[in-house]
Design brief:
The complex is a heterotrimer of chains A (about 260), B (about 775) and C (about 150). With about 260 residues, chain A is an alpha+beta fold. Chain A has three domains: about 1-45, no CATH class; about 55-160, Uridine Diphospho-n-acetylenolpyruvylglucosamine Reductase, domain 3, CATH 3.30.465; about 160-260, CO dehydrogenase flavoprotein, C-terminal domain (Enolase-like, domain 1), CATH 3.30.390.50. Chain A has helices at about 15-20, 70-75, 75-80, 85-90, 95-100, 105-110, 115-125, 140-145, 215-230, 240-260; strands spanning about 1-10, 25-30, 40-45, 55, 60-65, 125-130, 135-140, 150-160, 160-170, 180-185, 190-195, 200-205. Chain B has about 775 residues and is α+β, with helices and mostly antiparallel strands. The longest helix of chain B is centred in the last third of the chain and has 27 residues, at about 540-565. With about 150 residues, chain C is α+β, with helices and mostly antiparallel strands. Chain C has two domains: about 1-75, Beta-grasp domain (Ubiquitin-like (UB roll), Roll); about 75-155, DNA polymerase, domain 1. Chain C has five helices and five strands, in the order ββαβββαααα. Chain C has a five-stranded mixed beta sheet with strand order 2-1-5-3-4, with helices on both faces. The termini of chain C are far apart. The chains are: A alpha+beta (about 260), B alpha+beta (about 775), C alpha+beta (about 150). Chains in contact: A-B, A-C, B-C. The interface of A and B includes residues 1 and 251 of A.
Chain lengths: ~260, ~775, ~150
């Protein structure tokens, strides 16, 4: 069990940031799985008073506060309309409504968890993270970064026109996925994002233009083969590397077909 | 089938505790304990086989809030078993409260008693233990006659003819046969010969193991335990502590599920010991992880099975060898294994010429197994029903038709079932009805749904028993209350199954009153009549029998008192529900008047206790059919429809029988498709919590439909047989069958994962 | 130790707590025994309470986070629960009962949000409420027969 010595509701990002510079202090997000952790936390820093629980929209982008819950995302019509519902599809199988009412976008993205449906889906979109000190950087870049003591303030999704799809393979319906796969085409550029490899999600761009023009099953298969070659998979309790690579092909192929023939 | 119209029997009465449960009232162990008992925690071994060389608790004891810490040096040295079984138990006496020799990764090393959970956990980290690490037996195939002994201790003892031998790592062994199996098999046109493997599935009841102890106002040890077996628990605690049973009282409140897990006294000895030592109330609540790694899961079994038939599908011979993995202790080891043969083979009594059933049960350095709904039958039926399906596929026969030809039918003598006769058996009607409601002809063929998906179906039959014949007992006390209502006291344990209500329905039927007029109490070793407890599917059948007897006796007593009131002989009066009438007259006295008289200048007690037991254990039967959609590319299996038709005799409460069936089916689906048990290199289950051990959710089970085909069991109360266990047996073989239909590959190990299906890997 | 104030079932509760106390343990200490712990991995849904009317896992919410918020447990929603739980009792689907409070709380949340859900919507909303006894189908039948009877009344 985790031992928290002091709980502080930060009244400003600066306060939260300053407290978070002590190595053992922790930012509180959805607070899930704290009972499975152990160790001492001198100060737990709660961001819940900072108004980061809103999804804001303007003509160019959606700005999603770090404390927005997964269920808020799932129920946000305008956002889901934009992304063809792939974020809702990605989060709807995460344990249950009560869990998704706690789990936050900030916690999910900051964690850069290998198993993350959320990271996979957002990487398929044109997504940026706003860090308190580090500024706004592309999610793909953030996903590759080492953990540091910065704060994730918002997740920004640009309304770049595109088509999107999301697939995940699970055994039990609300379990961690064995593999996740987001596919998107924006401005004629297509990519596949593969997560739960079991490592964290990676992005494979269609550099070879295998998907140019009308999508056919043959093209989808070729792209899926290509993605499978590019993605390193591993084994854990939920599946072997061999099976995961097999799934990369199947889910990517299906994901491409789901985009439909007409692409932006 | 037709049976008499009843007032309370075969009626879907609400459970007596339903509104209390649904409205969240405080009725479970931890809700009733508001006196801040000491928190009891267990330090567990990180090694699968080791000797505690040194253990130093001095620093840990200094943690503020720690009351005491106990090690092997502090506990009595009398060995016992935690198995809840009738004395003398078949399970060997192989445990101490704390043993210097720890036998699995998770075995208890020290007991910590503290004022708070935080203090206990802090102390746990500060206990210094030096282990002498021994080589462990982690593979049950190598356990028998291994040089490494799980129980080398000389005090090891087993009562009864079970064949256990701790010097050979054997918990039990047996050889049984009828006819010349090898000769018949040699003469068969087709022989199916395979090995089947089922794992140590966890009951995963929602309420983990827990138990509370206090010293009561008489200075006795009073336990409130989440248990199915109050009387066995009392015996186990008394023996473990080395005190008289008269010093121990065990009661159960409502229980948050059991499924057999709580037929083992998994954690009672710890708070019992702490409270006996300190004189203070104490409570242990297992974490989910402890329930998963130090509980009492199903026995892992490997079943070598040969099935011989002629080319027309007549099943002629069955040969089964079961290797059962009991883990580090022998609880339920000698008794579960028998069901893998004795409750599978008799289903094919119809045509069988010879059978052989041999088994070994071995010790390993893994978590000890225990009792789990199905109790060995589940494992055997997976093997046999899979083999029968394979036979049908091989012969290009409809597997339901093949079963029609071979199945046991009413009136048949069953040599493989201890020579019992199938007095009540509607298995044939279950098959007919299930075929009809499932639409078998249409669902069975493989249908291509496009995009790599196919639909098809599978089938299986099952049986179980209704008690442990010639052994267990059930009792009921029924008392006439002041106002003409009744109190029914039982020692059986309602663990959510509804037995309190079902037994009250029987009493109401006998006493010709409403179910509401029967107040039920159970179970408490001080206040309940002796009962073996709720297990072996026996409560309806055995304790129900006791209720009927008790009511008959009470009616006699009431007639006697009534005759006194009417100044006539007992022969002249007759009980008619709310009155006793004097025959041939219009004179009568009400039950309320009898009740009043029973408490006034009276020497005839209006309270009786009756006990019941049975020389037979009539099997319930069922048929299950599943339709799946299988994604050949990902290997994903979705259950679309599961239909089951059950013969449990006359269902006393059809709604509760239906829920039992549905719940059992979903557990079976879980074991077949998603609940896995794998071990790390020190033999600890990797699936140690609900993040890893995946129970089916309501999105994982498709649509269920359950029906009943009535038979009338002449030895059961109101024609009833059991329902609780059989219902878990059909999903594994039926789903494995459907997967074969979809893919052409037989999977003979559970669970069957999408990976195995997609990559075509079988057993 | 820190001071918090929670509106628990409509009553203002002020208390001193350890900063790492779970809301689950807090509400049990204040007499709300309906709230159960079934796991340590935020998986089972037994501990569901409403925080500001939103169903959450009280095992995973720090009591400190709930400071200043409204928390409702089944103890405070008896009347709302009584409207429909009888239909579940009629199915016998209460069974061992240990998952019932969490399941009932989440059903309340569902019916407040969506008074006329389809079977699939019910399954999806309640997917995070595990039950090992009932096989779920009886719970669904109970909710369905409640909804049907409510429609007939109208």
């Amino acid at each position: 069990m985790i031992n928290i010595q002091k709980y502080v509701r930060a009244q400003s990002l600066e306060e939260a940031y300053t407290l978070n510079q002590k190595k053992k202090n922790r930012i509180l997000a959805g607070m899930l799985w704290t009972r499975m952790e152990s160790g001492n936390v001198p100060v737990a820093i709660d961001l819940c008073d900072l108004g980061l629980d809103k999804i804001e929209e303007n003509e160019e982008e959606f700005s999603i506060g770090a404390m927005v819950t997964l269920r808020q995302l799932q129920m946000h019509e305008s956002f889901e309309n934009y992304c063809d519902g792939i974020v809702a599809k990605a989060v709807k199988d995460i344990i249950g409504v009560q869990f998704r009412n706690l789990a936050t976008v900030g916690g999910s993205i900051w964690g850069r968890f290998g198993f993350s449906d959320v990271l996979t889906a957002f990487m398929a979109l044109d997504t940026y993270v706003e860090l308190y000190k580090g500024g706004v950087i592309p999610l793909e870049q953030f996903a590759r970064m080492q953990y540091d003591r910065d704060l994730l303030v918002r997740v920004i999704v640009k309304k770049k026109p595109g088509v999107f799809s999301y697939q995940a393979m699970r055994v039990q319906k609300t379990d961690f996925p064995i593999l996740t796969c987001g596919v998107s085409c924006m401005d004629g550029v297509c990519k596949a994002v593969i997560g739960a490899r079991p490592g964290k999600a990676v992005c494979i761009h269609d550099d070879r233009h295998l998907l140019d023009g009308e999508v056919t099953e043959k093209k989808a298969e070729a792209f899926a083969e290509y993605v499978a070659e590019q993605v390193t998979t591993g084994s854990n309790m939920r599946g072997s590397a061999e099976y995961r690579t097999h799934l990369v092909k199947i889910l990517t192929g299906r994901g491409v077909m789901e985009l439909g023939g007409v692409r932006a | 089938m037709e049976h008499r119209e009843y007032k309370s029997i075969n009626k879907s009465v609400r459970k007596k505790d339903s509104m209390q449960l649904l409205l969240g009232k405080p009725v479970y162990t931890d809700d009733l304990v508001n006196n801040h008992p000491l928190v009891v925690k267990i330090l567990r071994s990180p090694h699968p086989n080791a000797i505690v060389e040194e253990i130093n608790t001095a620093i840990a004891k200094k943690v503020p809030g720690v009351v005491d810490i106990y090690t092997w040096e502090d506990v009595p040295d009398q060995r016992f078993t935690n198995a809840g079984q009738t004395y003398p138990e078949a399970s060997p006496y192989d445990r101490l409260i704390l043993d210097r020799h720890v036998r699995f990764s998770g075995d208890a090393v020290a007991i910590i008693a503290a004022e708070t959970e935080k203090a206990a956990l802090k102390a746990m980290k500060l206990i210094k233990v030096k282990y002498q690490i021994l080589e462990a037996v982690l593979d049950y195939h190598t356990a028998k006659d291994s040089e490494i002994l799980v129980h080398p201790e000389e005090e090891w003892v087993q009562y009864g003819p079970w064949g256990g031998d701790h010097k050979r790592n054997l918990v039990a062994t047996e050889r049984d046969s009828k006819g010349d199996v090898d000769a018949v098999m040699a003469d068969c046109d087709v022989v199916i010969d395979h090995v089947y493997h089922t794992k140590a599935f966890n009951q995963a009841m929602m309420e983990t193991f827990r138990s509370y102890a206090e010293i009561d106002r008489y200075g006795r040890l009073h336990m409130i335990s989440s248990t199915q077996i109050v009387f066995h628990t009392r015996r186990i605690i008394a023996r473990a502590l080395g005190i008289s049973k008269s010093k121990v009282r065990v009661e159960k409140p409502r229980i948050g599920g059991g499924f057999g897990a709580k037929q083992t006294s998994v954690c009672d000895v710890y708070p019992a010991f702490v409270t006996w030592k300190t004189g203070r109330p104490s409570e242990i609540i297992y974490t989910r992880e402890e329930s998963q790694i130090a509980g009492s899961p199903r026995h892992e079994m490997e079943i070598k099975l040969r099935l011989g038939a002629d080319k027309n599908g007549k099943i002629r011979a069955i040969d089964i060898y079961t290797l059962s993995n009991s883990g580090a202790y022998g609880e339920h080891g000698p008794t579960t294994v028998g069901l893998s043969g004795h409750k599978s083979i008799p289903m094919y009594t119809g045509s069988l010429e010879a059978y052989r059933f041999d088994y070994d049960v071995v010790y390993t350095n893994l978590q000890a197994a225990g009792a789990y709904r199905g109790y060995g039958a589940t494992q055997g039926i997976f093997a046999l029903e899979s083999a029968v399906n394979e036979l049908a596929e091989k012969l290009h026969m409809d597997p339901t038709v093949l079963r029609d030809q071979n199945m046991v039918k009413e009136g048949m003598f069953m040599p493989a079932y201890f020579g019992e006769t199938a007095n009540a058996c509607a298995l044939d009607r279950c098959m007919d009805r299930c075929r009809q409601i499932f639409n078998w002809e249409e669902k069975y063929p493989v249908r291509d749904m496009g995009n790599g998906k196919v639909r098809t179906a599978g089938v299986a039959m099952a049986m179980q028993g209704s008690c442990i014949s010639n052994l267990d007992v059930g009792s009921a006390t029924i008392r006439l209350s002041d106002d003409g209502t009744y109190n029914l006291m039982i020692g059986a344990a309602d663990m959510g199954t509804g037995c309190d209500t079902i037994l009250a329905q029987m009493a109401a039927e006998c006493l010709d009153c409403s179910v509401d007029e029967i107040a039920v109490f159970g179970a408490d070793t001080d206040a309940s009549p002796y009962d073996s407890g709720s297990y072996a599917s026996s409560t309806t059948y055995i304790t129900g029998g006791a209720v009927v007897k008790a009511c008959e006796k009470l009616i006699d007593k009431m007639e006697l008192i009534a005759a006194g009131l009417m100044n006539c002989s007992k022969e002249e009066v007759q009980f008619e529900g709310n009155v006793v009438k004097r025959l041939g007259t219009d004179q009568s006295v009400s039950v309320e008047e009898i009740a009043t008289k029973s408490q006034l200048f009276n020497d005839e007690s209006a309270e009786v206790t009756a006990m019941h037991t049975s020389p037979v254990s009539p099997p319930p039967y069922m048929v299950g059919m599943v339709e799946i959609e299988l994604d050949k590319l990902t290997g994903r299996v979705d259950i679309l429809d599961y239909k089951a038709v059950v013969d449990c005799g006359i269902p006393i409460n059809p709604a509760l029988a239906r829920i039992q069936t549905e719940g059992g089916l979903v557990q079976g689906i879980g074991h077949t498709l998603m609940e896995n048990v794998t071990y790390n290199r020190i033999g600890r289950p990797m699936e140690c919590n609900f993040a890893q051990y995946k129970l089916p959710t309501r999105l994982d089970m498709g649509k269920l439909q359950v029906e009943f085909e009535h038979s009338y069991e002449p030895t059961g109360p109101f024609g009833a047989k059991s329902i609780g266990e059989i219902v878990i047996n059909t999903p594994a073989p039926a789903i494995a069958h459907a997967i074969y239909r979809a893919t052409g590959v037989w999977h003979r190990e559970l669970p069957i994962t999408p990976e195995q299906i997609a990559l075509g890997k079988n057993d | 130790m820190m001071d918090i104030t929670i509106i628990l079932n409509g009553k203002k509760i002020q208390d001193q707590i350890e900063p790492d106390m779970a809301l689950l343990d807090f509400v049990r200490e204040h007499g709300c025994y309906s709230v159960k712990r079934g796991c340590e991995s935020s998986n089972c849904g037994l501990c569901t309470v409403l925080m500001d009317e939103v169903p959450v896992l009280s095992c995973s919410v720090l009591a400190a986070r709930a400071d200043g918020h409204r928390v409702d447990t089944l103890e405070g929603l008896q009347e709302e629960a009584e409207e429909f739980v009888g239909f579940i009792a009629d199915q016998g689907a209460d069974q061992c009962g240990f998952c019932n409070p969490g399941f009932v709380m989440n059903t309340i949340a569902l019916l407040r949000e969506n008074p006329d859900p389809t079977d699939d919507e019910i399954r999806a909303f309640l997917a995070g409420n595990l039950c090992r006894c009932s096989g779920y189908e009886g719970q669904l039948r109970g909710i369905r027969s409640f909804l049907n009877s409510r429609k007939e009344e109208k």
